[in-house]
Design a protein that fits this description.
Elements: H1 6-23, E1 26-29, E2 34-36, E3 38-42, E4 49-53, E5 59-63, E6 67-72, E7 75-82, E8 85-93, E9 97-102, E10 112-117, E11 122-124, H2 130-137, H3 142-149, H4 158-202, H5 209-225, H6 231-240, H7 244-255
Antiparallel strand pairs: 1-2, 1-6, 3-4, 4-5, 6-7, 7-8, 8-9, 9-10, 10-11
Helix pairs in contact: 2-3, 4-5, 4-7, 5-6
Length: about 260
């Protein structure tokens, strides 16, 4: 058997290095399909699109609005509505607030900077009015705004601004989720006490009825505020509600605080 020559071995090695590099590039459609191949963006003019050349050399063109994003040379690009309408922008730093780079009019380089929040609000990063625009755009995070106001964070620290803003939003999101969960848990507990309260109100007058209703109101208030319910209050209520018709509802309510 004839052994491969030196040039053949070199060619095989070069191909083995080149193929993974090509395989890294891909396009993701709005339907979620991932198309791998050689990516050729066509970013100029109104009809922006991307051509993908597959391993079989088949060429397929995807219009901008059929593209979620594409990966080219270790950078991710996605359609964004910027200062001059929709364009493919390069993701510089992602998060709730994402920093994009875009092509300024009649330029090939991605020298423009654009910030966009997940809620769709965005702004071009200005030069002359940087402090004013950033303070207004990021006003929901006062700690970041304060550092911009004092000059601690300027345009040169834009990546830090994005990081700190996203960290601020993350804390707010966690805190909000915790509050929502706490309120939901309190409402669940109170609902059992609401049932008991209505049953007590429906009972014929009995000794200690008004006191029992006051104690139930006090307990509901403490639950809504997240306060600990004193044991004497629970014991006092139990001693006031001894009717057989109330035992089940009283037990259900007490389960929510035990």
């Amino acid at each position: 058997m004839k052994r491969p020559g030196l040039y053949t071995l070199v060619a095989i090695l070069l191909l083995s290095f080149a193929c993974p590099a090509i395989a890294q590039d891909y396009l993701v459609t709005t339907k979620g399909d991932t198309i791998r191949g050689e990516i050729k963006p066509q970013t100029f003019g109104a009809d922006k699109k991307v051509q993908v050349v597959g391993s079989d050399k088949k060429k397929t063109i995807y219009p901008m609005f059929q593209i979620r994003n594409y990966r080219l040379k270790d950078a991710t690009y996605q359609p964004v509505k910027g200062p001059d309408g929709y364009a493919f922008m390069k993701v510089v730093k992602g998060g709730y607030l994402t920093l994009f780079a875009f092509q300024l009019p009649n330029q090939v380089a991605y020298d423009g900077q654009y910030l966009m929040k997940k809620d769709g609000r965005g702004t071009e990063v200005p030069n002359l009015t940087f402090k004013k625009i950033m303070k207004n755009f990021l006003e929901d995070c006062p700690s970041v705004v304060d550092r911009i106001e004092t000059g601690d964070l300027g345009k040169k620290e834009l990546l830090t601004i994005v990081d700190e803003y996203n960290a601020c939003i993350q804390v707010k999101t966690v805190d909000h989720s915790r509050i929502v969960a706490s309120k939901a848990e309190a409402e669940k507990k109170i609902s059992a006490w609401d049932v008991l309260e209505e049953k007590v109100k429906a009972e014929a007058d009995f000794s200690g009825k008004s006191n029992a209703l006051e104690m139930i109101q006090d307990i509901k208030g403490k639950i809504s505020r997240g306060e600990k319910i004193p044991n004497f209050l629970l014991e006092g209520l139990k001693s006031s509600l001894t009717q057989d018709a109330l035992k089940t509802d009283l037990a259900n309510a007490l389960k929510e605080v035990n």
